[in-house]
Specification:
Layout: H1 5-40, H2 44-61, E1 65-71, E2 89-90, E3 96-103, E4 108-110, E5 113-126, E6 131-145, E7 154-158, E8 166-176, E9 182-191
Helix pairs in contact: 1-2
């Protein structure tokens, strides 16, 4: 049976993509094995570098997702130093504060520097799914470093003055401009005026 050229091209593209993913997985496995051998040979610094390179390969193959996403009582001062909020009920005047740790984002190499380029949109809906508002490019993050930084966190804040009592869901959607990946997370909360 003859397949149209478009189907053949799609099949070739899928085969190439699968081959690339397989090669990247092989690279990560080889680096991890090398790290284990170096550690066994008493070379912890070289082992750490190989294992870190393996983790970076695995990271780049991962989707853009989030390790932690939660309401917090105050902005975090550093990675992992967050204070979870005891309740998701707000009085309507208190700002909603969120903490998130993205994973799987990439870097653009710029000579000796690596650049992270992320933007965040948000949308708000009622608990039954009715759209209530959204904002594109709510926040943008551009960070340069001489290392491929993976420990990244975000403090996000929303103020919903005048929102009526009810249950809501906010969705934050992150766009990674280095890789083209997108990822999102939802946080439910409630407004209850005194």
């Amino acid at each position: 049976m003859q397949h149209p050229p478009l189907f053949r091209a799609a099949a070739i593209a899928l085969a190439l993509a699968a081959g690339t993913a397989s090669a990247q997985a092989d690279d990560a496995q080889q680096l991890a094995a090398k790290g284990a051998e170096l550690l066994k040979a008493g070379q912890p610094e070289a082992a750490f570098k190989a294992l870190n390179d393996a983790a970076t390969e695995a990271w780049l193959q991962s989707p853009l997702s989030f390790r932690h996403t939660l309401l917090v009582s105050a902005p975090a001062q550093s990675y992992g130093a967050y204070s979870p909020r005891e309740s998701n009920v707000f009085d309507g005047d208190t700002p909603l504060r969120f903490y998130a740790e993205p994973t799987g984002f990439g870097w653009v190499s710029d000579g000796e520097l690596y650049r992270i380029d992320l933007s965040i949109d948000f949308s708000l809906r009622s608990a039954d799914g009715k759209p209530l508002g959204e904002q594109k490019d709510f926040q943008n993050f551009k960070i340069e470093s001489r290392e491929r930084v993976r420990e990244m966190f975000f403090n996000l804040s929303l103020t919903l003055n005048g929102a009526p009592d009810g249950q809501y869901i906010v969705t934050f959607t992150m766009h990674d401009h280095a890789t083209g990946k997108d990822g999102a997370f939802d946080v439910p909360f409630e407004i209850k005026h005194g």
